[in-house]
Structure formats: C-alpha cells, structure tokens
Amino acid sequence: MPxxxxxxxxxxxxxxxxxxxxxISNWEYSxxxxxxxxxxxxxxxxxxxxxxxxxxAVMQQIKAKGQIMPYYGVGGSHGACVYTIHRLDNGYMIxxxxxxAKESTEFxxxxxxxxxxxxxxxxxxxxxANLRIGEVAKPRFxxxxxxxxxxxxxxxxxxxxxxxxxxxxxxxxxxxxxGRLGFTVKVMDEQSNEQIDVTxxxxx
Length: 204
What we know:
Elements: E1 3-7, E2 11-16, H1 18-42, H2 53-64, E3 81-88, E4 91-98, E5 103-110, H3 113-132, E6 141-146, H4 147-154, E7 169-175, E8 183-189, E9 194-197
Antiparallel strand pairs: 1-2, 2-6, 3-4, 3-7, 4-5, 7-8, 8-9
C-alpha cells in the first residue's frame, strides 16, 4: 500500500503503509544495527557519539536479548533519520537518510488517483473500526504538520494551500526525541527554491 496524503483545516498528514513502510523499517534497522555494532566494538561511531564503559555494558545486555539500541546523541534517542517526501506525477518519492551514518535510500510509490482514493477510504474505515472497538489505532507511519507548525507554514509567503499536494512542495521530517511532533519539519518550494523551517523549537 502507498503513501496516503490527508489535508484538512487543522492538519497536513502523510501516512505510509504496507510494503513501503516495511521496506523503510527494514532499511532503518540495518543501518541502526551497523551503528550499534560499531559503538559496541569501538566505543563510538566513526569517532562520533562516544559511549562510556558503563553504557557499553548496558548495550551488551541489550544485544544479548537480541535487540539493538544505537546512541545518536541527546536528541536522537528515537533515531537519526530524515524523511523527504515529494509528489511525482504518479505517486511519491520517499528519500530516507540516516544523517549520523550518512547512508540514504529512496522508495517510490506509484499509484493512480483511483487506487489512492480507494486506499484512503479503506484507511478511514480501518481507523474508525479500531476506534469503535477501543483499540489504539496505529497507522504504520505518520508524518504530520499541525498546530503552530501549520500556522507558520500558512503564513509563509511561498505557501499556496491549493498546491499542497503538487510537485511544487518537498516535505522534510527529521526524527528527534524532543517536541510535540517528534520531528523537525521543513518545506521546500521548488518554484522559488526557498525553504522554510516551521519547527516549533519553543516546544522543545
């Protein structure tokens, strides 16, 4: 299943589902595992993000349980990836970069408008059903712009709400462990070649 774009008065949201979501998750895990193993072996990753002996001992215990937990600094406990989403003629391009490891990959979602509308209806039905039966609805992966971030975006001179879902705008979400959204949020206007950082750093 593809990327689903939802746009309302209160929020812009990308939901990443299915095989693309799983592929992103698998890629992230492989890079995190590489970082984690090097930190265990050397006490750092390429000389960055040093780990003291006490923390390495904890990480050894984590590895013994078959788990990984790389260290990406104080603000990177949730990971070090930046997700770039750009609308193409027949879908989306998703570029994922682990900024600490300097590794990146790309995924393409090719879905026609009819298929996308059908998937969006299925997504809404699934969410409504889960909420009715009292379960916590957990879409695979959500990237949101709302609240103060959305207000700041809408006040930007280069923002055109009617073109939010066109190839004009490139959306970048950087994973952090701080803030309400858990991401930094930047938007690039391909028409003017200008970029805005709408992250609400006051919330950190």
